[in-house]
Amino acid sequence: MVTTLRDMAKQIERGMSIALPVDYAGVSMAMTGPIIEHGAGDLHLICVPTGGLQVDQLIGAGLVRTVETSAVSLGEAGGAPRFNDAVKKGSIRVMDATCPAIHAGLMAAQKGSPFLPMRGLIGTDVLRYRTDWRVIDNPFADDPDPIVLIPAIKPDIAIFHAPVADRFGNVWIGRRRELAAMAYASTNTLVTVERIVEESLLLSETTAAGTLPAIYVTSIAEAPKGAWPYGLWGEYPTDTAEILRYARAARTAEGFEGYMQTGLMEPAI
Amino acid sequence: MVTTLRDMAKQIERGMSIALPVDYAGVSMAMTGPIIEHGAGDLHLICVPTGGLQVDQLIGAGLVRTVETSAVSLGEAGGAPRFNDAVKKGSIRVMDATCPAIHAGLMAAQKGSPFLPMRGLIGTDVLRYRTDWRVIDNPFADDPDPIVLIPAIKPDIAIFHAPVADRFGNVWIGRRRELAAMAYASTNTLVTVERIVEESLLLSETTAAGTLPAIYVTSIAEAPKGAWPYGLWGEYPTDTAEILRYARAARTAEGFEGYMQTGLMEPAI
Amino acid sequence: MSAVLPREVLICAIARLLDGVRHVAVGASSPIPAAGAMLLRALKKKAGAPLPRISILGSVEHNFFTNGSAELFDCAGQGRIDAFFLGGGQIDGQGNVNLVGAGDYPGSTVRWPGSFGSAYLYFVVPRVILFREEHTPRVFVDKVDFISAPGVSADGVFRQGGPYALLTGKGLFAFDKEVPGFRLESVHPGHDLDDIRQSTGFEFAHEENPQQTALPDAETLRLLRGDVLDELTETYPAFAEQMRKDHELALKACEVVS
Amino acid sequence: MSAVLPREVLICAIARLLDGVRHVAVGASSPIPAAGAMLLRALKKKAGAPLPRISILGSVEHNFFTNGSAELFDCAGQGRIDAFFLGGGQIDGQGNVNLVGAGDYPGSTVRWPGSFGSAYLYFVVPRVILFREEHTPRVFVDKVDFISAPGVSADGVFRQGGPYALLTGKGLFAFDKEVPGFRLESVHPGHDLDDIRQSTGFEFAHEENPQQTALPDAETLRLLRGDVLDELTETYPAFAEQMRKDHELALKACEVVS
């Protein structure tokens, strides 16, 4: 169960769907390099519910076919340059969603249900272009009441970073329960952590409350500062200067290449 | 926000729907007496997802019109005597469900959705008698694929017992997340706790992970050993002898009356 | 070593029925299924094979869940639970299970607790083992009075799970969903086909001379009475104590005989 | 005390728009809406009235949520969030919001991040305040190129929320869903109707001589520049620092004038 970043990356196969968390929830930036090095492409990324640096870098590296997301941006550092460029060139397909629809799709998978209903969306172009969604008439209403059904999202692999795992494979996710939702919905879950502890996180009710059980975890690997330049709650803040540096560099394909060759995987610890 | 058991009981009005947790999740037995004393009847109980001692006692006290549940029993102490008697006499209406259907109904309310779909159930008499449920054809399937829709369950009030609350109204529920689900779905939530602490449970990420935020909590009251004779995780075990004593006494209406007059609200601390 | 006790026969039968599962969930008040699962794990451990995961609902020690009481059902819906046990106030020859009550619903003459999660789990867990020690025509009826969970479903109904076997105090049946119906696989020591026929309210297939339920070998029995019993003590202390007493009684009986 | 700064006019306008809410949610990168909500809370505290709850998404200090990033949407769906702010790359006269891109979708000539939660929250939060400081015809268009979230919905479509007001760097509009359309409520100091007309790509209703946006009284300004600014510093340090610098500059300018 405990392995290396490189061996974890090898579990990714060409064409797979990969779920990645939102900036502040624990992005495994440490996996970005090994994934690019491994090189399995044609990936379908599912942003839970939005994407940032990691998504932009995987797109820049040419590994991405589709991005299913509610947004991709670098936050304070502005738009995601490789994403925006790829959209303009038409080299990736964007399945534009809205945050609760991504959550609904994962929840459907969590429940073993084929879909989940969701309010809103009627009359939006988000719905108009999502031909994989359906609208039915709410069977519980007396009058016509259209409601959108979101099909289950079942990623092949979920990848995220968390503060702690124990040697049994249990992972402490705290109140970032979207990480659990991703794992429940996904066939396999790869987790990088700041540190691995000896004692089971399930032994104390206090830590158990914020723990994703090992049954949902395929592999874990130690990666100190593994969310950098993103921050990790309770551990370290976001390195905004570094994200700005990336944003500037990645305005061009060449700048992106240069950044990735020199700048990646060097957290300023 | 911090109040007394009696004042909490006064929030219950005749005809309301009340959500109560399963035996091991934190039953506020301390509220049973005050609810009976308050006397608001014609209640619709929703067991999340099954009921026990508290449900049996509220039925015995004549306060219950309907029980929506997946089961009612006293566990090792056998059948629930007042529930079984009321079913036989037809003096209560049972809306027989199955555990995940109760969870699905609460989840629909949590999501602000009118219903949630659920596998299973087709061909059961559970479904046959639940005329408030609907079967549709899964719109995502190529071939006919019937699936059950469970309407949202929106209790007026949820009542449960937990180890700790802080003076801001945040409640520590640990990994008993069905308590959060009940609170999300309910208009008001009344919580008894072993103790109230000064420091906010949200201040530390470790305790925050198992905390139901005050936004979902209407009132809290201190009730040491408030789950007795049920146990409370991490605090005290179930007093099986006392539940057996109740089970024997409550075989008859008179025995039940006697038990309630002398035996209730006297935890052997 | 004393003679094999009836409950040990059941526990060993369960361990065999569970062979190959990755994850089995057991109810909090089901010591015999839990013992069967623990025995299988001990046997796998000895063989150096991958260990099955055992979730015991309501147990703190064996509770791998952290998302409330809905997680078991979610986990099953995700296909992460391979086996589960189901009892029943009534079980009929089609594999239908009744946990609600005898007589006309809703005014049942005998009311049982209710369907619990059966109306869902029976559909999604691949290997549901029906387990009821009491083997009488009262339990094993021709047709249940209330279907909490049906043995089989019509074509086109989503169904990835269902009855796999029926284990009683008298024998072991396999379920054939094509018939649909039960087939007697073996008879426990001390019982015979006639006995089982008279105790069963439904028709079932069987050999002319059904075999006896396999008894555990000495090594398996040693594991069961050693490590497994110790492990069982944590979660089911009363049951484990009773097993120990039964062994002593059986041992004394053997001494008298020999 | 120095003259009222343009951003202070906005903050005070937001505090007024939020009057009466029990719970307002604010985005992590929205210091002006957050300041407006904090000002309202400070005013209510001073008046001894019930305090509004403020959830700032992404903030640890003001994060009342413990169920992951889905909780905001669940909470809104439960009717527990009364007000929310929405920006937009384009906003049109029907209250439609575009957060996706300009030009033909999907090959947008300008791509913005995406719709985030707007396609849901706009439907369920009663008081959505459209807030965009840049007031140009590029933002306020006749018709958005992509509807992330529509201003109004057809009869029979579930809709318990929607646009309540539109606040820009130049003026404040109310939304009338019956028309549907915006109506200019007031013009911020330093701007006039003609200016706003030329900067707005859609038609809107207005008085012949629209009033000026109300300025805060001295007590409100004191609260804003004292307690609220201190509180703001925790979550938006850069913004708070800028506000302090602007005050100093304004103060100096006043000294020069006087």
Structure, briefly:
The complex is a heterotetramer, with 2 copies of chain A (269 residues) and 2 copies of chain C (258 residues). With 269 residues, chain A is an alpha/beta fold. Chain A has helices at 5-9, 32-38, 53-60, 81-89, 99-111, 125-129, 178-185, 205-208, 240-249, 253-263, and strands at 17-21, 43-48, 64-69, 93-96, 115-118, 134-137, 146-151, 157-166, 171-172, 188-197, 211-212, 219-222.
**Nearest-integer average pLDDT of chain C:** 93
User: Helix coverage percent of residues of chain C?
Assistant: 25-40%
- Compute the gyration radius of chain A: what is it? 19 Å
- Annotated CATH homologous superfamily of the largest domain in chain A: Glutaconate Coenzyme A-transferase
- What series of H and E elements makes up the topology of chain C? HEHEHEEEEEHEEEEEHEHH
Count of spatially separate domains of chain A: 2
CATH class wording of the largest domain in chain A: Alpha Beta
Kindly estimate the percentage of residues of chain A that lie in beta strands according to DSSP.
15-25%
Global outline of chain C:
globular
CATH topology-level fold name of the largest domain in chain A? Glutaconate Coenzyme A-transferase
What shape does the CA trace of chain A take? Answer: globular
CATH arch. level architecture of the largest domain in chain A? 3-Layer(aba) Sandwich
Task: Give the count of structural domains of chain C.
Answer: 1
Please explain how this structure is put together.
The complex is a heterotetramer, with two copies of chain A (about 270 residues) and two copies of chain C (about 260 residues). With about 270 residues, chain A is an alpha/beta fold. Chain A folds into two domains: about 5-95 and about 155-260, Glutaconate Coenzyme A-transferase, CATH 3.40.1080.10; about 115-150, no CATH class. Chain A contains ten helices and twelve strands. Chain A has helices at about 5-10, 30-40, 55-60, 80-90, 100-110, 125-130, 180-185, 205-210, 240-250, 255-265, and strands at about 15-20, 45-50, 65-70, 95, 115-120, 135, 145-150, 155-165, 170, 190-195, 210, 220. In chain A, strands 1, 2, 3, 4, 8, 9, 10, 11 and 12 form a nine-stranded mixed beta sheet that branches. In chain A, strands 5-7-6 form a three-stranded antiparallel beta sheet, covered by helices on one side. In chain A, strand 8 and strand 9 (about 170) form a beta hairpin. Chain C has a single domain, classed as 3-Layer(aba) Sandwich (Glutaconate Coenzyme A-transferase). A six-stranded mixed beta sheet of chain C has the order 3-8-10-11-12-13, with helices on both faces. In chain C, strands 5-4-9 form a three-stranded mixed beta sheet, with no helix packed on it. Chain C has helices at about 5-15, 30-45, 70-75, 120-125, 195-200, 220-235, 235-255; strands spanning about 25, 55, 85, 90, 95-100, 100, 110, 125-130, 140, 165-170, 170-175, 180-185, 210. The radius of gyration of chain C is 18 Å and the shape is globular. Chain C contains seven helices and 13 strands. Chains in contact: A-B, A-C, A-D, B-C, B-D.
